[in-house]
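Review this:
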Amino acid sequence: MGGANPVTVLMDKDKSITANFSEIEIQPPINFQGQIEVNRAWIIIEYVHRLTWEADPRNSNVEQYRIYELQNGTQVLIAELDSAIFEYICRDIDKKSDYTYAIVAVDTYGNESLPGVITVNN
């Protein structure tokens, strides 16, 4: 966790207020991985990406994970998952295309960590 950063505000020539603000540092999930798999059901064949990760043990207040697909420099939110979930299946993928995903941890205040980024090559 970051240290406190004191800020002093002068209110009048004889009065002031000092407040301490702490930087909240939330770490991204670790061991973020993705692989292509074939989902076969009777006569239907579907290609999916199985994304997996682990919680960073330095975090104490992760509420959820957000997964984004990176498309032409834009983040597109594809899932918000409870902090107890460590796997996500992306369906309806084009098996001839590569996909880039980012995952962030989100704390109880809605702060996002830096992203963990992977590319799944098909």
